[in-house]
Write a structure and sequence with these properties.
CATH class: Alpha Beta
Function: Nucleoside triphosphate pyrophosphatase that hydrolyzes dTTP and UTP. May have a dual role in cell division arrest and in preventing the incorporation of modified nucleotides into cellular nucleic acids.
Number of domains: 1
Catalytic activity: UTP + H2O = UMP + diphosphate + H(+); dTTP + H2O = dTMP + diphosphate + H(+)
CATH topology: Maf protein
Helix content: 25-40%
Structural class: alpha/beta
Protein name: dTTP/UTP pyrophosphatase
Distance between the termini: 34 Å
Shape: globular
Strand content: 15-25%
CATH architecture: Alpha-Beta Complex
Largest sheet: 7 strands, mixed
Number of strands: 7
Subcellular location: Cytoplasm
Keywords: Cytoplasm, Hydrolase, Nucleotide metabolism
Length: about 210
């Protein structure tokens, strides 16, 4: 007997307000069908840090802002009412936020600063349930070994540093740079699964 493959796609259980492929992969990893919500970014600098704003406050605010923009977009477009997940990841060295590199020279500068040091990675997760915002923050300490100038140059040539906070992705080639972490590996990737699962359960979504 011939069997036809089941091509049914599970219905989305939440919106993901992020274009990050890593966040999509992590949600898929825990079996959560989702729909990416591409919300137009506000004009101006990408996620600027306000004067006097601490790094800890900055990452939580930016995640919250993403969730609220997503909420407003759902309402404006008349989309189905589903919980919405937003997140923001920040790399912090000596209290300073190290954002996404603007170009190759900026990536080299950031990686030189991180080389041989311990830095902090904070990922804030926000879930809009339709009635309230639920929030959590993952904090992880990451130790990067000493990097040679030629290693940094080769890494930048790979293109991997671009579009990533702190100019590196732990799940990629830079995994060989990291000697130790204390905290959440998935949080460093961009979506801490422990905290995310707890928020989604609080929003009424069953998580394995």
């Amino acid at each position: 007997m011939n069997h036809t493959a089941d091509t049914h796609t599970p219905a989305a259980r939440l919106y993901l307000a992020s274009a990050s492929p890593r966040r999509r992969e992590l949600l898929t990893q825990i079996g959560l069908a989702h729909e990416v919500l591409l919300v137009p970014a506000p004009p101006g600098e990408d996620e600027p840090q306000h004067p006097g704003e601490s790094a800890a406050d900055y990452v939580l605010r930016t995640a919250r802002d993403k969730a609220l923009r997503g909420r407003d977009w759902i309402r404006a477009q008349g989309l189905a009412r589903l919980p919405l997940l937003a997140a923001d990841t920040t790399v912090i060295l000596a209290g300073d936020v190290l954002g996404k590199p603007a170009d190759r020279d900026d990536a080299i500068r950031i990686l030189r600063a991180l080389s041989g040091s311990t830095h902090e990675v904070r990922t804030a997760v926000t879930v809009w349930t339709g009635d309230e915002l639920l929030e959590a923050v993952s904090v992880t300490e990451v130790r990067m070994r000493d990097l040679l100038a030629e290693e940094i140059a080769r890494y930048c040539d790979s293109g991997e540093p671009f579009g990533k906070a702190g100019a590196y992705g732990i799940q990629g080639l830079a995994g060989t740079f990291i000697s130790q972490i204390a905290g959440s590996y998935t949080g460093v990737m961009g979506l801490p699964l422990f905290e995310t699962a707890n928020l989604l359960r609080a929003a009424g979504i069953q998580v394995p």
